[in-house]
Amino acid sequence: MAESISQIIASLERQRESIEKALAALREVEGAAGAPRRGRPRGSGAAPATKQSRRGRISPEGRKRLAEAMRRRWAVKRASATARKAARKKAA
Q: Which residue of 1, 5, 23, 25 has the smallest Cβ count within 10 Å?
């Protein structure tokens, strides 16, 4: 049993060495070559405070302005569509 455990340990150490070599090669390809990472760490799950506080917020006044602008836009579209239909009927 002690022999099998030592074999397992040796196998794991070989795997660790090959993984470390692969990681070193990837770092060289990336250009980082062991340089420390900048910015927030991956997997932190927290968005920056500036984006989180502004995301999806619109004031009631802003919502009213947008609604009014869309109403005007669609009114112009409806008016031009009815004018085209009337022109077609008149031409026919």
A: 1
